[in-house]
Design goal:
The protein has 5 helices and 3 strands. The protein is α+β, with helices and mostly antiparallel strands and 118 residues long.
Amino acid sequence: MNPDEPALTEVPVTAVLFALSDPIRLQIVATLSGGHEYACGHLFPDMPKATRSHHLKVLREAGLTTTRREGTSKYVRLRAGEVAERFPGLLDAVLPATDQPSPATTPAATPAAAQPAR
């Protein structure tokens, strides 16, 4: 496990709620809730890189996401099963609040699994 990704047993619910309190982070979680892994650079491509990195860091440190590196790319996915086990019903309760269309649905934001290998 990445040292920046805490075990969910060590994460207080207040840290998770704080991470989910921002509309941008909530939209990122909603996008990731489809179960796909996304290349970090392709997730919300119109968002400034520093802003995207900050929000992904907050989500990772709250235990909501996991990030893996492959070469020079980073991939992020939601730890949905682990979150549901530690905080039952939490994601189901907050995800319906994201009723706006996601800017992550641009062609460049397709899940990593659907992107052609290079």
